[in-house]
Design goal:
The longest helix is centred in the first third of the chain and has 20 residues. The chain is built from nine helices and 23 strands. Helix 1 packs across helix 9 and helix 8 runs parallel beside helix 9. Strand 3 and strand 4 form a beta hairpin. By secondary structure, it is an alpha/beta fold.
Length: 413
């Protein structure tokens, strides 16, 4: 046993340990070690020493809950949210924001090395914005008269009166919903509602109901009186000097302050005759790609997103070739490599089939916009083994106060 850790014996899994925290890992927890086993504890920071109670054991991993921080990091601060630690939405509010960014860089480096066997670039640039009030989309859960987010690893709803990472219009939406659930008219079978906003209008999507029950039109009429500007149809979102129509089934980035910076970093200095965008959504990147490439092809599998993208391109008077297909299906039919491939895949990443097709085509440059460092590391491993090298890796902090991160990696053959 190490000199700087103490163990208080107790029966069963409720043992208490006093341990130093080595580092943060992807997922938000701090990593400690005890007798050859890893201990994962949320809401601690690297360099701290904490008293921890073990609540779950799984193979060589112990999951703990912090009881007391005995030696505090200089990066520790007071959370802004009154339900931080109970609500599952945020993970880093106990850390000063500059420290959050540096810790995310460290996590990214560790994941690339451990999973991808990749030596990350010496410099990882960071693009940051306002760390509060940035979200333009939230999903609120409802349980009786409780409205809020769920506890970590639970369906229990934490009653929330304000969300400091959400935009002013979304907090207005939260307050309106809280008033409504206290009224006898509210349909009790509604379990969650999603709001998306451009700060003028609010798109409303009843996300979950009991037994799939449908909500009557009168509910949305009532909501519009409580929340002026609310609607169930598409809304218009302005970014990059363009206007985007976005249906509720279409993906759009959630950080209202960094959409432009994300787009600029994703395209970088890439130019040429032909660009291909995979997982194109409503055309956030495609419209800007037309400024640097003579031909732009955009691939998306979701029907309504393709329709949004086509309408957005037409309104912007941009010539883009849209294809409704999965990336795997589309790439299988491509015989000539584009100059640049830009991919913004979901959390599952590109996957082995897309990586295989990219290796076959050998485009000169590839840009990957990733929201999960683990799947990014797996995809990069395959591409680097096939002859690509990482030119730049940029952390775009779209999700302050949380462990989530967006990264942009540019590769060249």
């Amino acid at each position: 046993m190490r000199d700087n850790e103490d163990v208080q014996k107790s029966e069963g899994p409720a043992a208490e340990l006093t341990l130093p925290v080595e580092k943060l890992v992807y997922g938000g927890s701090g990593l400690s070690r005890h007798e050859g086993r890893v201990v994962m504890t949320p809401f601690v920071l690297p360099g701290e020493r904490a008293r921890i109670v073990i609540e779950r054991e799984k193979k060589d991993v112990l999951n703990g809950r912090v009881l007391e921080v005995l030696e505090k990091s200089e990066a520790r601060t007071s959370p802004l949210c009154s339900v931080f630690g109970r609500c599952g939405g945020c993970h880093y509010q106990h850390a000063l924001y500059p420290a959050q960014v540096e810790m995310k860089k460290d996590v990214l480096r560790e994941v690339l090395q451990r999973i991808g066997k990749i030596t990350p670039p010496e410099t990882i640039e960071a693009i940051t914005g306002e760390p509060w009030g940035y979200r333009n989309r939230i999903q609120l859960h409802i349980d009786g008269q409780k409205v809020g987010y769920r506890e970590p690893g639970s369906h229990a709803v934490v009653d929330t009166s304000e969300c400091p990472v959400s935009s002013p219009k979304l907090n207005e939406s939260l307050r309106a919903l809280r008033r409504m659930v206290r009224n006898h008219r509210f349909p009790r079978f509604v379990r969650s509602i999603e709001f998306f906003t451009n700060e003028r209008e609010v798109q409303v999507n009843v996300h979950e109901t009991m037994a799939g029950q449908r909500v009557a039109r009168t509910f949305f009429e009532w909501l519009e009186t409580e929340l002026p500007g609310s609607a169930t149809g598409p809304i218009e979102y302005s970014a990059n000097g363009n206007h985007y129509r976005v249906h509720y089934k279409s993906f759009f980035q959630v950080n209202r302050f960094l959409v432009g910076a994300l787009t600029k970093a994703a395209i970088g200095d890439a130019t040429g005759e032909k660009a291909l965008e995979l997982y194109a959504g409503v055309g956030l990147f495609s419209l800007s790609l037309t400024n640097s490439f003579a031909r732009v092809d955009a691939v998306e599998s979701v029907k309504v997103a393709v329709e949004d993208a086509e309408g957005n391109a037409k309104r912007a008077r941009k010539q883009i070739n849209h294809f409704r297909a999965t990336s795997e299906e589309f790439l299988a039919g491509v015989t000539e490599a584009p100059d640049f491939v830009l991919a913004d895949p979901p959390r599952a990443g590109l996957g082995p089939e897309v990586v295989k097709e990219l290796i076959r085509l050998k485009p000169r440059r590839i840009g990957i916009v990733s929201c999960d460092p683990s799947t990014l590391a797996r995809d990069l491993k395959g591409l680097c083994e096939a002859g690509y090298r990482i030119k730049t890796t940029t952390l775009v902090d779209l999700f302050p106060q949380t462990y989530h991160m967006e990264t942009i990696t540019h590769l060249e053959l």
